Amino acid sequence: MPYILNTPSQIKEMLEVVGLGSLEELFSHLPPSLRIRGELSLPSGLSEEELIRVVKRLAKKNKPLSKFNSFLGGGIYPHYIPSPLNHLIGRAEFYTAYTPYQAEASQGSLQAIFEYQTYICLLTGMEVSNASLYDGATSLAEAVLMSLRIKRRSKVLICESIHPEYRAVLYTYLKGSDFLVEEIKFNRDGFLDLDTLKEKIDDRVACVCIQSPNFFGLIEDLETINEIVKKKGILVILVTNPVSLAILKEPAKLGVDIVCGEGQVLGRACAWGGETFGWLATKRDYLRHLPGRIVGKTVDREGKESFCLTLQTREQHIRREKATSNICSNHSLNAIAGAIYLSLLGKEGLKKVALYSLNLAYYLYRCLEDIREIKLVFPSPFFNEFVWQVNNSYQVWEALYSKSIIPGLMLEKFYPQLKDCILTSCTEIKTKEEIDDFVICLKEVVR
Amino acid sequence: MKEKIIFRKSQKGRFTDYVTKPQISIFPPSHFIPQRLLREDLNLPSLGEADVVRHYTNLSRLNYCIDTNFYPLGSCTMKYNPKVNEDLANLEEFACIHPYQREEDIQGTLEVLYNLEKLLCEITGMERFSFQPSAGAHGELTGMLIVKAFHSLKREKRFKVVVPDSSHGTNPATASMCGYQVVVVESTKEGLVDIDKLRKVVDSSTAGMMLTCPNTLGIFEEQILDIREIIHSQGGLLYYDGANFNALLGITKPSLMGFDIVHLNLHKTFSTPHGSGGPGAGAVGVRKDLVPFLPVPLVDKREAHYYLNYDLEHSIGKVRSFYGNFPVLVKTYAYLLRLGKEGLVRVAHNSLLNANYIREKLRDNYQLASPKRCMHEVVFSCKDKKEEYGVTALDIAKRLLDYGIHPPTMYFPLVVKEALMVEPTETESKETLDYFIDVMKRIDQEAKTKPSILKDAPHTTFTKRVDEVFAARNPVLKWEESGE
Amino acid sequence: MADRFFSKTHEWVRLEDDSALIGITDYAQKELGDIVFVELPSVGEKLTQFSHFGTIESTKAASDLYSPLSGEVIEVNNDLVNHPEWVNQDPYGKGWMIKIKVDNRDEIVNLLEETAYKSLIEKES
Question: Residue A443, CB half-sphere, CA atoms under 13 Å: how many?
């Protein structure tokens, strides 16, 4: 009887107290027509040993990244996870704890999240951050909904060069409303088309959403974009990679109003995109429009510095249908892991992760420049990934895969105009040897 | 011992080299990126590994958690989190998979999802499940967007959603997010949906109703089939908030109760850990004719090959990037395999037994919110104690901390004044329940004889009662160097 | 306080010549608990009777504020930004929220006098 502690004699004792003869009688008031006839058509429970065997057998059917020389990016990136991180986040006091509504029982989680909020503000230059959302895509959706509330306008402009899945999620979220979404194309160099932007901005637009580094890895000119849209009082929402912020200018200094993105890169595994967290930061002026939980500093009765969830009247459990969002559970544990990652790496460490990713990506880029059959589709500057094109790309991809090399993400399914294009990424865990090996094999395959 | 805020522990020059310098020439960022796009300074702290380990280890020790304390939190189902589930979710073959790897590389992952889906369909009676929603509220949003898409396709103008006044806040918040007008229907004195009042508010402009069963008072909606009839007769859809499903595993199915769409809280009913507030998952199941509306992709099988099926005719699209909280899904799968059909029924039996035991033992000390027999949770009202002794539900909750017990859910449902909602779950022992009962009786005595000990509680936790008013009046939401 | 009237949503209005002072009642502030934040309109905003003019928050609730009379906002109690607790301490005095130029005094007929308001709150408790 796994996980249940009550023994048959205890059950008997308790039934007596409740005044019933059997456990079944606990359900006697349910209408009989609702009862399952017989048993559930499920197998019987396994022993723990057998469970492990069964699941491991399934796991073995996977081919994880360690079996490949992979250059996959596109929103989820394999970075080095310092060993203490999983030990710390694996502490039961963090992962079996409940939401910190009772501050006196949760100072550990609360301080960890307060520090996490601080880290996000330090990276982005923003004044306030929330305590996490589900992923980069939903954080963008929430940022957009926020801007619509703040501006009380009806239109949203988004760049085509924002992650395709993020745009898809935004469309889904806005299906519940009358808000209009319009896409701005990228120009032939892969950057936001500024002329189209100038055409499309008007007084109905609440926000312009841009990603930088964008889906193609390119670093956009946020200052110019900001100058253009600020004339109409439009909010700038930026989706970015927090690791890139180790070297890129703080979004707050470039006129960005709300910044958000995916936090997986901060110490979480790839996990098939299942270890994500969304982060969101903004100016203090917009504090009361922030979705999700927020941790604040306070004092206890004895005047000791303490932390608690605050400004909860924005949230669903108090504000109900007028809440800033319906979000209740968030991705706290992953956000705390993000803070631990940043603490372990520190200033120097994070800079190095960004610097090495940048250099390795450019090293690969230069190597590909030398291959006649390869076309580098977009120019500089980029961060940790870029787009290249080759004829018969599907055959090339397959040939490399058969040598256990994953060259990157085929873009045609997301962008039909980018035929035969591949998005290739390098993080600090790639070695010169692996890149050279990829280049050699690629040369063989294309010739 | 209190830990200083981590930023104040920074020591210039302290650094651990976790990553290797690549064997290529390393150029500064300005070599590749125009200087004006680069930042001048990165003000993160500089710490050593032992600094960080000590900091977070000590922080963790300030927390209550299931592994150390009893959490009788109504509606949260804080049951024991099996350790084997953690080991299995962390297997390299599951953890080191990139979401854009091809299907041939992830046959194990897909088989887990395919099998899990089949198990949940059997348990709930739904036809298919989506695992994209990353929390219960996210599942509610998904479900209500399906409702909206369903009616839109039929070109029916439906703009109202009904929720009971006892509903969880996420229900009306979700309905609002989907652009619906929220219509609240009152409960009866016994805490159940008032069928007559429901009949009056439901009409052809009603898109549907969101309902949890047992309800938030822990009571089974015995007239659920009447509720279904009212909603369905007007062409509306009935949505099941699965937060309280722990009471019904193997006993009944949402499909038998008449629900069209269901979300399950995997971090409640299915034992995956709460993680200080997340991540969980809110798997969404639907009956057959709603399958085309589910988020894409679903996992299907063709001969022996599992694949991602994006071919759903009226899909609402995606509700998050990639596929869902896969590690949480592995833990759910492992839990279901471990429990099996008998184990699930045992969960329902013991969760009800534990809750009713507490109900019976405390009914003379604490006012029951409803005369009806409870299921997996019992709600008490402390209204009389407030009136007689000036002691509130909050005071009682905080005093429990002095006895090492996490407070129950307070002030919810809204229909009960000074509510305390107690859900012991099936994984607690009689000894723990007896201790809890004993403590609650003691606190009841304290309320009568020395109420101040409650009003000033907790006394024995490291942090005493925090000033939430101060926190909200002067929001300090991050550490500032100057603010020390 | 014959010049003070009340709305069913627990706001009070005190008439002074052609202007009126508006705030929330003692009952309302007690129900809300310690006030942490008040969101008020800008000077110049035009309100209609019972239209929404702001929000008031405590740690456990947030309520909308509705104007008892129609009129243009001519003054706003900005002190409440730094002293939201004045609403608790002195809801009819220091805790006033907005001053409006009254459009139509006849609208008072839709409001409650003190005795009527007192019986309303007795029923609600």
Answer: 13
